[in-house]
């Protein structure tokens, strides 16, 4: 990471890109199909029983059209499927296929290895402090006025 960023949101974004770059390159090197950041976000936020496109869009913070495009790319790759929602005839759920579950589990295992590399590089105490800070309850986002 270059640390050109001046504020915490930029640093967090840069750190996320570092993890994504490592994950995507590692998965492709292992022979997996390449995915986009949007597609990876869909996988990260899917419920086991399936999730609607609208709910995925809300969780990711993007438009339904963006999620729809990512989902249909993943359906085309055989990693997701669209099924009727048993609770509503009008809704469809997006869920992983068996192949999608295999790829997701491999990605999760790869992330653990990437985290261990980070721990080796920055040390166990800073890695633990980073995890503790990111998993702490930050409360509701504040409404502030700049001086």
TrEMBL record:
Family matches, as InterPro entries: HTH_MarR-typ, MarR/SlyA-like, WH-like_DNA-bd_sf, WH_DNA-bd_sf
Q: Domain of life of the organism in this record?
A: Bacteria
Q: Name one Pfam family in it.
A: MarR_2
Listed Gene3D superfamilies: Winged helix-like DNA-binding domain superfamily/Winged helix DNA-binding domain
Give residue ranges for domain HTH marR-type: 5-139
Name it.
MarR family winged helix-turn-helix transcriptional regulator
What is the native source organism of this protein? Streptomyces tricolor
